[in-house]
Design brief:
heterodimer; A: 416 residues; mainly alpha; three-stranded antiparallel beta sheet; 74% helix; B: 481 residues; alpha+beta; five-stranded antiparallel beta sheet; 21 strands; globular; Beta-lactam/transpept (chain B); Stage V sporulation protein D (chain B)
Chain lengths: 416, 481
C-alpha cells in the first residue's frame, strides 16, 4: 500500500517537471539566438526550487502532498509567462517565490507547534483595523484603488493580509461557537465587523477584495451559523448594499457598464477588458506559442490580466488547465476540512479553500467578461510579493490542517 | 453524543458549498469554451485589435489590378510606415473598399485581407518559416474589372442613386460594378463624418447589399414558369386592367393592349396579362423557378451578397401571388442577382457564378489562386430559355426597351418599373448583347428615379453596351470555347 502510494505520488511531480522543462526550453529558443546565461540560471533556479521544496515537504509533513505541487505548478506557469514578458520582473518573481516558500514553511511550523491561535480572535480584529487605518493614512492610489502602502521602498497591500486575518476571525468565532452562543448578539457583532471591513474596502475602491471577503464570510456562515435567518439577512443586506453602491458610486457603475457592453467604451473605460478579450480570442485553443503573441497590448499583463496573457500564448487549453488546478486545490482543501477533527483548523481549511476558489473565479471571470471586472490578483500566478506571500501563507495553513492534529494533541497531552 | 448528531448536518452544508463553488469554476470553463467557439472570430476582426495591424506594419499590402493589369490600388513605404493609396478615389469605393486603422476595413480590402497581407493559417511550420524568412510583400489581386468600363459606368450613374453591373454571361466575370452614391476611399479622414451621417447610405454597396422590388424584369421568371407549366392558354384580351379579389392591376402608363399572346404580353410588359396567368401557374411553380434563379439562396461571391427574397412558402392570397408575378408584392432582389438571371437566359439556361477576383498573384509573379467559371444552376429547359431570349429581343426591337437598341448590334432586354414605398418608381433594365453570341450582360437600376425602365434605365444600358463591346477584349473567352 505504502509503496504504490509513493509511486502514484511521483506521477504528478514528474508531469510538473516535463511541463517546466518544455516551457523553459521554449523560452530559451524562441528568440532564435544563443540563450543567455541569465535565463539559463533562472531556469535552473526554478527547477531546483520546485524540486527541493516538494521533496522536503514529503519528508516533513504527513499531510496532503498534492496541494503544494498544485501551487508550484501554478507559480511555474505564471513565472515563465512573466519572465517571457520581462526577464527582470521574472527574476524578481522567482525571488518572491523563494520568499513565499520560506513563508509557507514558517507558517507551517508556527501553526503546528504553537496552539493559541483560536484564543486570540480579538487581536486579529484589532490588527485588521490597524492595517485598514494604515492604508488610509499611508495609502497610495494605484490603478484607481487606494490599497497599497509603501514602507521603505517595498509596496505592500494590507488587504492581502487582512483577508487571512478575516478567516482567522471567523474560525475563532465559530470554533468557540458553543461558548459564544449564550450571548445571542455576538453573531450580529460578527456581521457588523465584517461589513465594516467590506465597507472600508469599498471606500478604498477595492471591489474585488470586498466581494471576496463577502464570499468567504457567507460560505462559512452558511456552514456554521445555527440561527439560519441570519444567512438570509446577510444575503439581503448584500443585495441591498450592492444596489446602493451602484447608485452611489460611479466606480461601481463603470464596472457594470463596461461589463454589459465594453465595445462602446473601447477607447477609455472599456479598454482593459476589450484588450483582454482580443488576447484570449487570438490565443485560440492551442495558443500562439510562447513568445509569439503580443501580451504587452494588454494593460497590467503581469498582475490582474496574467490569465489573458497566458491564454494568448499557451491557449485556452492551458487556461482551462489553470481553472482545473484551482478546482482540484479547492476540492482537496474541502476534503482536508472535512477530515479535520479540530474545529478551528477545520474552519481555517474551509475558509482558505473558499478564498482560493473565489479569488480565482472573480479575476478569471472578470478578464473573460463572464462577470464584471474587479481588479485582484490570480493566486500564485500573478506577479507580486504581497499576493504570492499571502497565497503561500494560506497554503501553509492548509498544509497544517491536512494533518491529523487531534490525535497528535492527545499524544502531546499524554506525554506531558 | 451531541457531536455525532451535528456532524452530518455540518457535512451536508459543506458539500453544498463545495458543489456551489465547483459549479462557479466549471462555469468559467464552459464560458471560455463558448467564447472561443462562437465569439472569438468576430472579436479578432475588430479594428481596435492591434494585432491586426502588426502585419500591416511589417508587410507591404499587395496591389490591386484591373483585368488589363492597370494598378488601381497600391501601398508604399514612407518613413517606416506603409501607406495605402487609392488613386481612383471614388471609382472603386464599393469594390476595393478601404483599409484604415480608425475605420476598419471594407470591400475586397476586408474579404481578401489575408491574401493581400500574405497571412496563412498559422501552424508550427509556417511560424518557424516566418521567423527565419521575414515576409515583406503581400500578394496582388487581379480583378475581372475593366477600368474603362468601370469609369463609363460611374459617369453614366453620376448624380443618380442606383447600380450598374456588367458581366460576361458565359464566364461570370464582372466587368464593372458601380453603386451610387459613393465615397472617396482616398479621403476618408475628411469625409467620414459626412458619410456616417448621410441619409443616403453611401457605404452601402447597392449592387449586392441593396434589396429592391424588381417590377417587370421579374416577368422573365414568371414567363419561364408559364412555359414550364403544361396546358396554360397563352392568349389573353387586355382591356387595360384586371381585378383580383377587389384589387385592380393595370399598367404603369394605363395602356390597353387588346389581343395578346405571351410574346405580346412580354414585349409590352402587360401587367394584366401576367396577373391573370400567374393565378394559373400558382405560387409553388413560380417559387420553384425563382429558386432556380437563386432567389432565396445565398450567392457565393468575392464580396458579401444579400439574399434575394420571394417567400412563397408562407400562406399567400391571390392578390399577393398576382403582385409577385409582376415583381411587386413580396419580391425583393439584389441587382447582382438580376445580372445573373439575365446572364443565365443569355447562356442557354446555365447560371454561372459571378467572379470579381480572377487571380491572386504572389510577389514572384506566380498565380497562387484562381477563380474559374462554375455553373451554379440550370434554370430551365432549353426550349423555354430560347423562347424567353427571343421575347427579350422583341422587347428591344419593338417593345418597351426600344431605347436600348444599337444600330448594328442585336440587343435583347427587359425593362422594369417598380413601385415602392417612396412613391417614386425604381427604373430597371436588364439585357445582353449580341443576341446571337452574348458577350455582355447588363443590369441598370436607378433607385427612386420616378421614370419607367424604358425611359430611365434603357438608354444608359445602351451606352454601356456600346462602350463595353468596343473596349473589352474578349479574346481569352474565345480560346476557352
Amino acid at each position: 500500500m505504502l509503496l504504490t502510494g509513493r509511486i502514484k505520488n511521483n506521477v504528478p511531480r514528474r508531469l510538473l517537471f516535463i511541463f517546466e522543462f518544455l516551457a523553459l526550453f521554449l523560452l530559451l529558443i524562441y528568440e532564435a539566438k544563443v540563450p543567455d546565461l541569465k535565463t539559463v540560471l533562472n531556469a535552473l533556479a526554478l527547477l531546483v526550487i520546485v524540486y527541493l521544496s516538494n521533496l522536503i515537504l514529503i519528508k516533513v509533513s504527513s499531510g496532503d502532498n498534492y496541494i503544494f505541487q498544485i501551487a508550484t505548478m501554478l507559480v511555474s506557469i505564471g513565472a515563465i509567462m512573466i519572465y517571457r514578458m520581462d526577464p527582470s520582473i521574472g527574476t524578481k518573481q522567482l525571488a518572491w517565490f523563494t520568499v513565499g516558500i520560506l513563508c509557507f514553511y514558517m507558517t507551517y511550523f508556527l501553526l503546528k507547534h504553537i496552539r493559541i491561535w483560536d484564543k486570540i480572535t480579538y487581536i486579529y480584529i484589532a490588527m485588521s483595523y490597524i492595517l485598514f487605518a494604515l492604508t488610509f493614512v499611508l495609502g497610495e492610489r494605484k490603478y484607481g484603488a487606494i490599497n497599497w502602502i509603501e514602507i521603505k521602498g517595498v509596496s505592500i497591500q494590507p488587504g492581502e493580509i487582512i483577508k487571512i486575518l478575516l478567516i482567522f476571525i471567523i474560525a475563532g468565532f465559530y470554533s468557540n461557537y458553543e461558548k459564544y452562543k449564550r450571548k445571542k448578539q455576538l453573531s450580529y457583532i460578527l456581521i457588523g465587523i465584517i461589513y465594516s471591513f467590506i465597507g472600508l474596502l469599498f471606500l478604498q475602491k477595492d471591489l474585488g477584495m470586498a466581494l471576496m471577503f463577502y464570499s468567504i464570510f457567507i460560505s462559512l456562515q452558511y456552514i456554521y451559523e445555527d440561527d439560519r435567518k441570519l444567512i438570509l439577512y446577510n444575503i439581503g443586506l448584500f443585495i441591498f448594499s450592492a444596489i446602493l453602491g451602484y447608485f452611489l458610486f460611479s466606480h461601481v457603475r463603470i464596472r457594470v457598464e463596461t461589463w454589459l457592453n465594453p465595445w462602446r467604451f473601447i477607447n477609455d473605460k472599456g479598454y482593459q477588458i476589450t484588450q483582454s478579450l482580443f488576447a484570449i480570442a487570438e490565443g485560440g485553443f492551442f495558443g500562439k506559442g510562447l513568445g509569439l503573441g503580443y501580451p504587452h497590448f494588454i494593460p497590467l499583463p503581469y498582475n490582474d490580466f496574467i490569465f489573458s496573457a497566458i491564454v494568448e500564448e499557451m491557449g485556452i487549453f492551458t487556461g482551462i488547465g489553470i481553472i482545473m488546478l484551482f478546482l482540484i486545490l479547492f476540492y482537496r482543501g474541502f476534503k482536508i476540512g472535512m477530515n479535520q477533527e479540530n474545529k478551528f483548523y477545520k474552519i481555517l481549511a474551509l475558509g482558505i479553500s473558499v478564498l482560493f476558489a473565489v479569488q480565482a473565479f472573480i479575476i478569471i471571470g472578470g478578464v473573460i467578461k463572464l462577470i464584471p471586472l474587479t481588479g485582484i490578483t490570480l493566486p500564485f500566478v500573478s506577479y507580486g510579493g504581497s499576493s504570492l506571500i499571502t497565497s503561500f501563507i494560506a497554503l501553509g495553513i492548509l498544509q497544517v490542517a491536512s494533518e491529523d492534529l487531534e490525535s497528535r494533541m492527545k499524544i502531546d497531552e499524554e506525554e506531558s | 453524543m451531541k457531536k455525532k448528531v451535528k456532524m452530518p448536518k455540518e457535512n451536508k452544508r459543506i458539500i453544498t458549498v463545495l458543489v456551489a463553488l465547483c459549479s462557479l469554476l466549471i462555469s468559467l470553463v464552459i464560458y471560455i469554451s463558448y467564447f472561443q467557439v462562437f465569439k472569438a472570430e468576430s472579436i479578432k476582426e475588430n479594428s481596435y485589435n492591434k494585432r491586426l495591424w502588426i502585419n500591416e506594419e511589417n508587410v507591404l499590402r499587395g496591389s490591386i489590378l484591373d483585368r488589363n493589369g492597370k494598378v488601381i490600388s497600391y501601398s508604399e513605404k514612407e518613413d517606416d510606415k506603409n501607406i495605402r493609396y487609392y488613386p481612383y478615389g471614388r471609382l472603386y469605393s464599393h469594390i476595393i473598399g478601404y483599409s484604415y486603422r480608425q475605420y476598419g476595413k471594407s470591400g475586397l480590402e476586408k474579404e481578401y485581407n489575408n491574401e493581400l497581407l500574405d497571412i496563412n493559417e498559422t501552424n508550427a511550420l509556417t511560424e518557424i518559416k516566418n521567423l527565419v524568412l521575414p515576409k515583406s510583400v503581400g500578394n496582388d489581386l487581379k480583378l475581372t474589372i475593366d477600368h474603362s468600363v468601370q469609369e463609363k459606368s460611374q459617369s453614366l450613374l453620376k448624380g443618380k442613386k442606383g447600380s450598374i453591373i456588367t458581366m460576361n454571361p458565359k464566364t461570370g466575370e464582372v466587368y464593372s460594378m458601380v453603386s451610387m452614391p459613393d465615397f472617396d476611399s482616398a479621403n476618408l479622414d475628411s469625409e467620414w463624418k459626412g458619410i456616417i451621417e448621410s441619409s443616403e447610405s453611401p457605404l452601402l454597396n447597392r449592387s449586392i447589399q441593396g434589396l429592391y422590388e424588381p417590377g417587370s424584369i421579374f416577368k422573365v421568371i414568371t414567363s419561364v414558369a408559364m412555359l414550364e407549366t403544361y396546358g396554360i392558354d397563352k392568349n389573353y384580351l387586355c382591356k387595360g386592367k384586371t381585378t383580383v379579389e377587389g384589387y385592380t392591376f393595370k399598367d404603369y402608363g394605363n395602356g390597353v393592349h387588346g389581343k395578346l399572346d405571351l410574346k405580346g404580353g412580354f414585349k409590352n410588359s402587360c401587367n394584366p396579362y401576367f396577373v391573370e396567368k400567374s393565378l394559373m401557374i400558382g405560387k409553388e411553380k413560380l417559387g420553384e423557378v425563382a429558386d432556380k434563379f437563386m432567389i432565396n439562396k445565398n450567392i457565393a461571391f468575392d464580396l458579401d451578397v444579400k439574399k434575394s427574397k420571394f417567400d412563397y412558402k408562407k400562406a399567400m392570397g391571390k392578390t399577393k401571388i398576382a403582385a409577385s408575378s409582376i415583381g411587386q408584392g413580396d419580391v425583393l432582389v439584389t441587382p447582382l442577382n438580376m445580372a445573373m438571371m439575365v446572364s443565365a437566359i443569355a447562356n442557354g439556361g446555365e447560371m454561372v457564378k459571378p467572379i470579381l477576383v480572377k487571380d491572386v498573384i504572389n510577389k514572384n509573379g506566380q498565380t497562387i489562386k484562381t477563380n474559374s467559371t462554375e455553373i451554379l444552376s440550370q434554370v430551365s429547359n432549353n426550349d423555354a430559355v430560347e423562347e424567353v431570349k427571343e421575347m427579350m429581343r422583341e422587347v428591344v426591337v419593338s417593345g418597351t426597351g426600344k431605347n436600348a437598341s444599337i444600330k448594328n448590334v442585336k440587343v435583347s432586354g427587359k425593362t422594369g418599373t417598380a413601385e415602392n414605398a417612396s412613391g417614386k418608381s425604381h427604373s430597371w433594365f436588364i439585357g445582353f448583347a449580341p443576341y446571337d453570341d452574348p458577350k455582355l450582360a447588363i443590369v441598370v437600376l436607378l433607385e427612386e428615379e420616378g421614370t419607367t425602365g424604358g425611359k430611365g434605365a434603357a438608354p444608359i444600358a445602351r451606352d454601356m453596351l456600346i462602350h463595353g463591346l468596343n473596349n473589352i477584349s474578349f479574346a481569352e473567352e474565345k480560346i476557352d470555347n
